[in-house]
Amino acid sequence: MADGAAAFHPEHPFAQVSYLIDGTDVFALEYRLRRGDDWSAWDSLEITWNEEQAAVGRLFLDDPALAFEVRGPEGAVDFASFEFHEEIVADPDVLTRNLPVEVEDKSASLPGFVVTRAQWGARNPGRLCGSAHTPRRLTVHHTVTPNNDSLTPAARMRQIQAFHIDGRGWCDVGYHFMVGIDGRVYEGRNNWMRTGAHVRVANRDNVGINLVGNFMSFEPRTIQMEGAARIIAWVADRHGFTINRVNVRGHQEFMATDCPGVRLQARLGELVDRARAVQGGGAQPPPPQPEPAGRSLVGFVREGNINAEDRPVAGASVRTAGNRSTTTDANGFYRFDDVPVGNYRVTASADGFATAETTRIVDTSASTFYASIALQPETRTTTVVGFVREGSINADDRPVAGAAISTDGGLTATTDTNGFYRLEGVPLGSVRVTAAADGFTTASVTRSLGAAGTVYYASIALEREPAPTPPGLDVPIDDLDRMAIAWERLGDGSWKFLATTPDNVRSVTFIVDGQTLPTSTDRSDSFDSRWRPVREGLHRDVEAIGFDAGGQPVAWAMGVLDATEAAGVFVRQTGPREFEIGIERAPWAARFLEVIVDGFTLTDRNTGLTRSDRQAVRYRFQTLGERTFVLNTYNSDGSYRGTFRRTVELR
């Protein structure tokens, strides 16, 4: 944000933005969002943690967005890092600033060179994080924060803890130990004998050690290498495992990431030697061995595949780390000399071809390393995205999930739970995009696509098809008694709808998404009807009408199922002004449900509790109308799990 503004266009729609910012005027920052073709108005950026120049914040979005822009006075920000999440990952009810300051003294259980949580001013999450494990390996990371830090190491620790809790929704700091730019070791997570949150695929039995700084092009300070070696040696001694390059790895050795940076990754062998020296009682770790000079990174750029020797791409631009660049010769050959040890990403580009890249580790095992790249002829296509919504394309209208998207060229897609679709590889020129969904009239829009690689927006509004009028329903629903309704999905893909009715009801007709189901009769006070949808959708509107022996409407009920691929929120009538709100296919391990309406926590009429263990809450409302429901789920130990939000009109 050197010029006072920055724009971000994540690959997928996002529902939460998390950020860590260093600056002198963070409260002057503003943001705006783009959900369709237009940007929202500018609004103040929320800050949840602030200490001198260090700040942390997060934004929860009611509707997912496609792009994000932030601005502020020039010079207000020295450093900023933004993360975009497809779902809300942080707990809305937990903020680091509201947690108590850590007071427990752990100096007796940690070596004397470690700065404890109480000493650096950590906040206490009030519970143990992670699960018990037996450390037998370590993973090295970097924070990707400034190397010439304007914050004190303790302040940087407090900011990182706030970012992990407020922004990522973690229980505490993700790493077990951190090494500041001062070379001192800082205690991270509140118990290194429990799993951290530092290697998503391999946290168990793995101790995370994070060096403060960005080591993509900056060499780690000697004092940081020494501090890291001391804590590695202590952990290995404490748990009895061997210090080697199998048990001490960089983050990138587990998954696709640049962490812990090219420079630090290249020196992990040296770090292992230093830790062994500390473990063996040596006064000083051995100095790093001088690196042999003359290593070269070379390769060919060819069309189609790297073995096509008769199809070189001459004049291609080749780039690698450190902003080094060169051009291929007539044979498609390039060469970089005097290349330091490290992990390199090499990128090649040429007119008429799609840009491509490869990676190569340069070490001390050889003097020449090959990184050849194949370029594919560039296709003249682009990407079309958009939302399908009910009524209009404005972001406030209801999304149409599961809509079938097609183009006149034969490309197809399906909208997600937010009504969003994405079409890749759309040929340039004029394209007509059509949306179709059960219960809606089909609609199309036309766009002119002029530039390859540009993302074009084509949002579509669908109108509901007129619902057939049920027989005899010619009286206001307010004049009718109320019934209780429910439903269940059967194994054969059909649905079963049930109604419990007053004594005078002799038949019940269900209407689902405007489609009238066969009337159910002669079932005493309980009626059921079965239905198989043409295409499974993520939103269902249910209406039930009860008729007396003379065929006159005497009772009525409503229900809504608003689902995602994984779970569904339902609201269904159980009596006069009484509704049951719950979750269908609740997330795995979710045990308790809490429902909040307009800031008021509902008490379940069945159990008398505000946290129901039956994944539903039944409540009688004083007044009806549009209500926004916030459904919080909790694990069996009472810890927060996740939140669903839905707006439903109660009638």
Tell me the CATH superfamily of the largest domain.
Answer: Immunoglobulins
Helix segment count?
5
CATH class of the largest domain: Mainly Beta
Cα shape: globular
In angstroms, what separates the terminal alpha carbons?
Answer: 50 Å
Q: How many domain units?
A: 5
Strand content: 35-45%
Main sheet properties: 9 strands, mixed
Q: Give the total of beta strands.
A: 47
* CATH fold-type name of the largest domain: Immunoglobulin-like
- Structural class by secondary-structure content: mainly beta
The whole-angstrom Rg is 30 Å
Helix content: under 10%
Average pLDDT score: 85
Indicate the low-confidence ranges by residue numbers: 282-292, 467-472
CATH architecture designation of the largest domain: Sandwich
Task: Report what the structure shows.
The protein is mostly beta strands and 651 residues long. 8% of the residues lie in helices and 41% in strands. The strands form ten sheets. Strands 32, 35, 36, 37, 39, 40, 41, 42 and 45 form a nine-stranded mixed β-sheet that branches. Strands 9-12-11-13-10-14 form a six-stranded mixed β-sheet. Strands 15, 18, 20, 22 and 23 form a five-stranded mixed β-sheet that branches. Helix 3 (222-239) packs across helix 5.
